[in-house]
Amino acid sequence: MKIIVTDEVAHEGLAILQRDPRVQMDIKLGLKKEELYSIIGDYDVIITRSGTTVDKPLLDHATNLKLVARAGVGVDNVDVDYASAKGVIVVNAPFGNTNSAAEHAMALLLSFCRNVTKANGSLKGGAWKRAPFTGYELKGRTAGVIGLGKVGGRVATRLKAFECEVLACDPYIAEKRAHDLGVKLVTLDEIIKNCDIITVHTPLTSETHNMIGKKELAAMKDGVIIINAARGGIINEEAMLEALDSGRVAGAAFDVWSQEPPDSETLKKLIGHEKMVVTPHLGANTFEAQVNVAVDVAKEILRYMDEQPIENAINIPKFDASLMGQMRPYLNLVNVLADFIIQLVDTNLNKITFTYTGGLAQYDCTPITVCGLASLLNRRVEQEVNMVNAQLMADSMGTVVEEVKTKNSEDFSNLITITIEGPGEKRLISGTVFEGVPRIVKLRDYQMDFRPEEHMLLMAYGDRPGIIGKIGTILGKHEINIAAMNLGRREKKGEAMVILSLDSAVPADVVEEVRKATEATFVKPLYLITAK
Q1: Catalytic residue, candidates 49, 104, 158, 281
Q2: Keywords, A to Z (predicted)?
Q3: Cα–Cα distance between 107 and 103 in angstroms, integer?
Q4: Which end of the chain is least crowded, N or C, by CB within 10 Å?
């Protein structure tokens, strides 16, 4: 695995990777775009912070790239959509600098309220003045937290410790989280109209871009204090400048900017404004946070190399971390089922249905579905398909993907069924996990029970005496050992289906010999990559 590091990343994280003999790492800082384009095609992984833009041109040059590791929370510098289309996984470290960012937001707020920066400059300049630096207390004020995620939640807790009444706005969290934090969940409009202090802690998206502009600032209480330690562009900076000049806003403290480094006239005026406390994007700049994010992305890369589920991928559906242990066997099962059934389908894939029966049905099974879809499509297209681009690939092929859940299961506590429909053809396979091992329990309408193996032979034929003996004789003649056999049939002397587990592959001429000898209606040798 060849890895290139293009920004300053803490040694503690890189050392984890450098100790792995599978890793070849090159640290190349400060490369110009053209220099990076010329070499990026040699690498499987790029580790960046905010100094490298992973955009369409870079991704087009990165012909072998499999993973972008952003050592930090924000991925504004990564074109995630285009990376997804290319099948490139994007991971970040969403929790490594959580505490650092929350503490910095509070530092900005307290610095403004107590005139720390102005008083510091005055005293260092030789003056002893106190009256000009009379400040504000937080106790008794109403504070609004926009975004109650990991950082926003910590900020809310700290504001409560300063005896603020805390209102919060976040349409993506459960009411229980707000209740657990002891804050009141309200609408954005209520925060705008009622709060003395407003602090934002959301990602920058099309939905949050310019979320606070002229209209919102005009509706705020006179003398409001605004903090932005999240992402530049959430608050419209031109509108912010006007609100400071008009006196509507008592003051603000920003750590982030829509342009970094800032060089527009609006940003220069905003940064220089006497009512502003400013820092150059230092939210994650603690020694602890830089180590944490470096270690977190290094561990994600190792998980990828070990073919383990990745916990913090931006563009892959993922389980709740607490469920990962119990769900991992079903990720393996769906891979095996998909690998098996796709070899039995010769037509176009019009529709693929993933059905979850039993206890599994109460959970979010999207990661299992996407994992199975990737396994199916990898047998059909030349481009590598993974959990990143599987749905995009299915969409481009016109394949409908459906997920069905039912809690009622008479025979198995958990069951996964894949059904593939094409022109004039329908294939079905069901499987479960027994003692951690995948078992296939149904093919089409035949009840079966066998463990998938690397080499298998599937046959359908008219049930009559002597057929099994003929199969064994022919395979034995060609020194192909039968490890296990499973037989299914609907009725006596009707159609029968047999699945043989073999120690080696069956050559095409032997398959034809078996077909003729048994007058089989269907014979298919199978090679299961997932069962190796």
Answers
A1: 281
A2: Amino-acid biosynthesis, NAD, Oxidoreductase, Serine biosynthesis
A3: 6
A4: C
- The single residue of 165, 190, 238, 260 carrying the catalytic annotation is 260
Which residues are paired to 450 by β-bridges? Answer: 440
- Mean pLDDT over 499-526 rounds to 93
Catalytic residue among 49, 141, 154, 231: 231
* Backbone conformation region of residue 507, classed left if phi is above 0, alpha if psi is from -120 to 50, else beta: beta
The answer to whether residue 260 is catalytic is yes
What's the predicted TM-score (pTM) here? 0.63
The three-state (H, E, C) secondary structure of 344-389, written as one string:
HCCCCCCEEEEEEEEHHHHCCCHHHHHHHHHHHHHCCCCCCCCCCC
Band of residue 321 on the pLDDT scale cut at 50, 70, 90:
low
281 is catalytic: yes
Read off the tokens for 57.
């041109």
User: For the sheet containing 455-462, what is the strand order?
Assistant: 482-489, 495-502, 455-462, 522-527
What kind and span of H or E run contains 516? helix 508-518
Q: Is the pLDDT of residue 490 over 70?
A: no
Strands 414-422, 351-358: parallel, antiparallel or unpaired by DSSP?
Answer: antiparallel
Q: Which one is predicted more confidently, 325 or 267?
A: 267
11 belongs to the catalytic site: no
Tokens standing for residue 360:
């599994």
